[in-house]
Request: fold
Amino acid sequence: MYATNTRDSGIHVVTRDGKIVFTESVKEFLKDKKIDSLKELGDGSVAVECSRSIFILKPQMLSMRKNVYDTIKRLKKNLRSDPTDLELYSKLAKRYMENDPISEEPYQLYLSGLEAAAKSSNFYQARRFYEKARQIKPTCSEPCQLFLSYVKITPYKQLMRRIHLDLFALTKVANDLPNDLKSRRCKTRLLIGEGDFSFTSSLIDKHEVTHPNLRKAIIATDLKATHLQKLSKDQDKKKKVLEKRIVDLKQCGVNVLFGVDAKEIHQTFKGRRFKRIQWNCPFGESTSTARKEFTDTIPKFFQSCSRLQLPNDRVHITLMQKSDEYWKERQIENRIVHGSATAGYRLIRKRSFGTPDKKRYPNYTHVKTNTTKPYNAGGEENEFIFEKTDTVLPVDSYRKSCKLMDSHKKIYAIKSNNATRKPPLEECYFECSTDEDSSDYYESDSGEEL
Reply:
């Protein structure tokens, strides 16, 4: 109940963002009668006592949201009956967030879901609940501590390391890192099309404390040394910065190579194995003719990767996807569905790599292909991570490519703008959620599956 110089005194229901969703003025409702008391009832109504009478006010907002409350009540009842039904935790959390975006309930539900999933050994779903809880409270260590208590008694050492790193990022306490991590070897990593090598440098800087041996495991390459060749005399300062960056990378243990063609890496590195191969933004803004000529590059790149990798090794590809529906076109242009599936790779992660407001690697500069100009198209860069399987498709098969998916690692759909039931893979794109975890650069333990 309140009064202002713009609204009559009376009974008003106001949301947290200041919107009045119900109002009844004294003049219209109670005339000149004096209000003696107000009392909230159990169903959200308000009892108004005045002049020896009681009026019950039931705001319209409750009747409008009755379905939401009924759904929440039903889901809670179902969850009490079967706490192992993991879908109920997500459904209930979604309903709470729709009803009250700042409610504490979704966070607690995700923690409860994490425990239920871990107890049933469903660590894929447990990881999803863990990520969602951390999204709600990114500065809270409770999800890390809870998840660690379950993971530490499993064989999933890679997942345990990931949680330790998340915890360290929050606390900055050295004791939160296991003693063996700093001396641990890192997976061999081949970086393609590095351009100005700002990603290589940023990657090493970001993981300096947690992965000091990462630099020794990296081979960073470029095809044409475009930046060294095209920086003009009036850009001499930038050229010196780039030259110094390359020298510094070499001195700290990175192997820097030029003349490496992404389609022929199996020839350049014949006989070697790379557990991780990464290509960021393989083709920037250019002409339609150039984009058309590029369409076979990603499929050939995957085929070449497959000759340097064993099952469970990974390929990372980052795409600038702009906004609206362009992300679909971008995937089709680069043929990542066709390229990955026909080489026997399945999608296991999709991460946000950077937006105009937030970058995973702040010192990394994405530039247009064959230029030194920054790519300023806006939108979001997404990192797609693929895992090599022991399956190779004999033909371009939509049905068989869908069967490559491992639902314990990533759930996704392969779709197309083509209305046919089995569209050609060249016209397909991945549709899936975005993961919040980040890479583990340490060498794997034997027998580790997750």
Q: What stands out?
A: The radius of gyration is 28 Å. The chain has three domains: 10-63, 67-176, 189-432.
